[in-house]
Amino acid sequence: MTVKADKHLLALWTEAGKHAVLSDLMPSLIEVLREIASIDELYLFAFNGADEWRLSGGWRNEHVPEIFTLRPITEASALDTIQRWARATAQLSVQSDATHRAALKVLLGSDYNEGISLLIPLRRDTGILGVAVLICESACTSSQCEQLIALTEPLLACIENDQQLTHIQRLRAKAEADRQNLLSRLGLRSISENIVGADGGLKQVMRRVNQVAPSPAGVLILGETGAGKEVIARAIHERSARHNGPFLRVNCGALPPELIDSELFGHEKGSFTGALASRRGWFERAGGGTLFLDEVGELPPAAQVRLLRVLQDGIIQKVGSEHDVQVDVRVIAATHRDLPKMVQEGSFREDLWYRLAVFPIILPTLNERLDDIEDLAKHFIQRAAMRMGVPVPPLSAADVRNLKRYSWPGNIRELGSVLERAVILGHGEYLDLEMALGAPSPKPRAALNQASPVAKINAPENESLEAVIAAHIKHILTETKGRVDGPYGAAKRLDINVSTLRAKLRKLNIDANDFKGA
After folding, report:
1. Torsion (CA) 158, 161, 162, 166 in degrees, nearest 10
2. Which of 224, 318, 490, 502 is the most exposed place for a label (fewest CB within 10 A)?
3. Is 112:104 a contact under the CB 8 Å cutoff?
4. Displacement of CA 255 from its chain's centroid (Å)
5. Residue 391: how many CB atoms within 10 A of its CB?
6. Least confident of 40-54, 164-178, 230-244
7. CA 309 vs CA 304, 305, 318, 496: distances in Å
8. Which of 74, 75, 55 is nearest to 66 (CA)?
9. Which of 480, 391, 510, 384 is nearest to 436 (CA)?
10. What residues pair up with 293 in beta bridges, in sequence order?
11. Could you give the C-alpha distances from 303 to 326, 335, 340, 446, in angstroms and in order?
12. Which residues does residue 466 pair with via DSSP β-bridges, in sequence order?
């Protein structure tokens, strides 16, 4: 190849390195082509790998890609011809070739001026990318054809970049569509909506959230099931310097004991039966972001030891690997269990407790933030209506009073479920709150009558020991509003194991649900 040809090739490689979008390269390509031969027009036919060809771009004296972009080729004869061209070597076809001229007429339509054309297949070892068609004013010499064919290498590189960029854009559009679909299903407008009650019952909690969010300190969120621990954890993440990183949630109580190490820290291929490939654990996947360990009190002792090492050193070791992996993760833990008591009993490591509870945040129950119920109800009603595509039913003052009278053992999660059920039962026209609660409107807490199973809790002196125990349990259930487990449950008040209390309830024929409205 001549020095002049090398100059042209270098110039095109330089331009190809500057542009990831194919259309941006074309003006430079046309200019270089015209320095070699009397090229008048250039057309690119792209192959998408699924037996589909498109005229993806056309350039003449002026850059006019909008005329040609994404025009599918459907004519059978033209498809057969262009596929034959793609498999052939580069060839010079002159105007006198009637079959060739007819195919170009079909492919290019009225844009084809029946000039002399040079066809150059564009392919890699991995497959066909397309065909370039150059329309010339006059016949090219063999030297000119050789130079033109050599220029396809940087063109191929730019085509591949363009295809990858298009693929990424499609994936991004699909991800955004999936995100919007998920938000719609959740009844949300954005992932970071304002927290209901931030200026009310959660004011102190949000103050602590804003204090700890900018720091790298570990956080332990304590609260009953359904109180909104994940919402608070996400709020900490979004207010931190890691807000652009991932936020991943792991329910420690749902991890099978034999798979905890693999799930949290990952594993190498072949490290155990069924490990057909290497796998990154939750800590690696949350790199640069936040890992929310929900129900951390459910971790067995062996897993607690390995979690402690990660919190201390930021190092994990995959199952089946001898190498340490450094991870950069902020850990936020949460539990409804009484961890200090578990530490005393020896079921939770004391050193892990100190590592997790650098900055504890205690969430109030819904019964401790009754003033937020109206705003929470409006939020859940609107979310449910959005999810189901129905009008937002009104929330009356009577509805609010009834909601405040209910004991809400399931906290905010139960409130959301009840209101969604009320929207469904009311078909979006009204709130069927009475049916949604599963009973007539709940009585006020103080309105217990003599017919209540807990109205008389003081047993006479001649009662049996079993009757006295039953009366005492009923009294505690009354005060805990039927709640059995959790830091505010009857088991905690009675200082016995939850399973022991449940067995006692079955033996004494006491139903804790009878006390939920107490």
Report:
1. 180
2. 502
3. yes
4. 20
5. 11
6. 40-54
7. 9, 7, 13, 32
8. 55
9. 384
10. 250, 333
11. 18, 16, 18, 46
12. none
Q: How far apart are CA 486 and CA 184, in angstroms?
A: 33
What is the model's pLDDT at position 456?
Answer: 40
DSSP secondary structure code for residue 166 in this structure: H
Contact status, residue 333 vs residue 356, Cβ threshold 8 Å: yes
203-213 as b/e: b if 16+ CB within 10 A: eebbebbeebb
| Burial track 133-149 (b if 16+ CB lie within 10 A, e otherwise) | bbbbeeebeeebbebbe
- Give residue 126's identity as a one-letter amino acid code: T
C-alpha–C-alpha distance, residues 319 and 261, integer Å:
7
Which amino acid, residue 174? Answer: K
118 closest CA partner among 140, 102, 87? 140
Q: What is the mean pLDDT of residues 344-354?
A: 91
Residue that wins the pLDDT comparison between 76 and 368: 368
Q: How far is CA 495 from CA 226, 443, 454, in A?
A: 23, 30, 21
Average pLDDT over residues 92-114: 62
CB 425 within 8 A of CB 435: yes
Sheet containing 359-362, strands listed edge to edge, beginning at the edge strand earlier in sequence: 247-251, 290-294, 330-335, 219-222, 359-362
Percent helix, strand, coil in the chain, to 5, is 50, 15, 35
The confidence band for 107, taking pLDDT boundaries of 50, 70 and 90, is low
Q: Tokens 């109580």 correspond to what residue?
A: 253
Helices (H) and strands (E) in the chain, counts: 20, 15
Beta-carbon contacts of 135 under 8 Å, excluding residues fewer than 6 positions away, are 39, 40, 41, 42, 43, 112, 113, 115, 116, 117
CA distance 471 to 78: 90
Whole-prediction pTM value?
Answer: 0.53
Radius of gyration over alpha carbons of the chain, in Å? 35
pLDDT above 80 for 440: no
Quick count: other Cβ atoms within 10 Å of Cβ 117?
Answer: 22
For residue 481, give the DSSP letter.
Answer: T
Give yes or no for residue 310 having a pLDDT over 80.
yes
**DSSP assignments along 6-17, one per residue:** HHHHHHHHHHHH
**Residue 425 per-residue DSSP state:** H
Only one residue has tokens 């009475």, namely 434
